[in-house]
Amino acid sequence: MTLEQQHPETQSVPVNSAVVTPAIRTGPVIALLVASAFVVILNETIMGVALPRLMVDLNITAATAQWLTTGFLLTMAIVIPLTGYLLARFPLRRIYFMAMSLFTLGTLIAALAPGFEMLLAGRVVQASGTAIMMPLLMTTVLNVVDPSRRGRMMGVISIVIAVAPAIGPTVSGLILSVLDWRWMFWLVLPIAVLALSLGAVWVRNVTQTREARFDIGSVVLSALGFGGLIFGLSSIGESASGHAPIPVWIPLIVGALSLAAFVVRQLALQKSDAALLDLRTFRSRAFSLAVVLVVVVMSALFGSLILLPLYLQQVLGLDTLTVGLMLLPGGVLMGVIAPIVGALFDRFGPTPLVIPGMIVAAGALWGMTTFGTETSIAWIIAVHMTLNLGLGCVFTPLLTSALGSLPARLYSHGSATVSTLQQVAGAAGTALFITLMSVGAATAAAEGADAVAATATGVHTAFVTGAIIASAAVVLTFFVRKPAPVEGAPPVVAH
Prior knowledge:
This protein is mostly helical. The chain is 73% helix and 0% strand. It contains 18 helices and no strands. It has helices at 3-6, 27-42, 51-57, 62-65, 67-89, 92-112, 116-144, 150-176, 183-186, 189-202, 216-240, 249-269, 285-314, 320-348, 351-368, 377-404, 411-446, 451-477. Helix 5 runs parallel beside helix 7 and helix 8 runs antiparallel to helix 14 (320-348).
């Protein structure tokens, strides 16, 4: 039986066309995808505020506890490269149910977890579903939304990608103020089940499918490459606290060599359109530049999201509810400005948004270098809101510029590439900030500082490094341009 016979709703769609069956209303599909993606992405950072309590309840170190976030992001980085193949080979409806079923199962496992190992396993299963959802959403939007309206739609997607993680600590803080940490999962579980139920009614196949080859060698190299690099980065933090399981240089070298082999293999396979992740996307200058900046932005966002709750609780001694409420204004601000930024992009392009946005974000990270043992709550909230304002002005234009510069046949691979590097950057940012904090704190403690002062020193070290990286990225923003119309762009079919 042919693919078209299996899925007759896609029969009239050519392999490299973005035409969608006119009878299908895509509005409800996109709405459910956005809502579902928001729920699953929220769980990337929901553990941040809970880490100090988990360290006590589960008797683990900070470097070990951060694997509940890093492991989540790392799993996503390993799974997302598969989505280019999955989105090409299978219809949207089937992929949606796969993603939400995995997320629901992982949420149940985490809610029932008696200890760290099972909790981490639940997070990994959760992440496997989450990894599929974002490329699914972006590829669908690219195929069914007219290019002239993509900025506004990407603004909505930015709420999912950036705002959901930003308010994760607030949600967990509110829950932990009155309930056990397992309720962070019990409360999400019925929402996930509801999304599955609504999917049975609303989700239809609005994107094309085609025959695609599955290359197991690419999957293995991808897992070893991304996994080795992130494991090595995270092990630096564990090494500083004396808990590294193996020498740090081993996973770093294995990761670097495997990633290099993965790239070489993709370059060879893409000649016959058989690559797991088609790297011809990087032939677009706009795509390459935007991706580099997205990596910097995601590193800063996730690094600060993991470090701020630790600083607020371990240095300033604040409770989880207070920490969650302090981080809420920044997340709300990013959500409010995302659609506005998208509309401004459609009208003026990325340049007037990206340059000042990155400057503001870098300035906010420099402001975070002033955080110490006596810093006022008002100043912390103001700086955090400033960071989110800057990142909010940068994120939507970069995503739209990157993906809008590609031909339709590379949409799924472009979405998979951007999503993969977002998660690698988030995991690397998390690992980098925690590592720098651990090293800085260990050095200060060795010099005689007490625990609070040593942690404050470590936090300062991490934020200085983040500020330097963000400042260097400001230079690149001057080269960002609005992508020219690409041959094969889809017609207006969204309702």
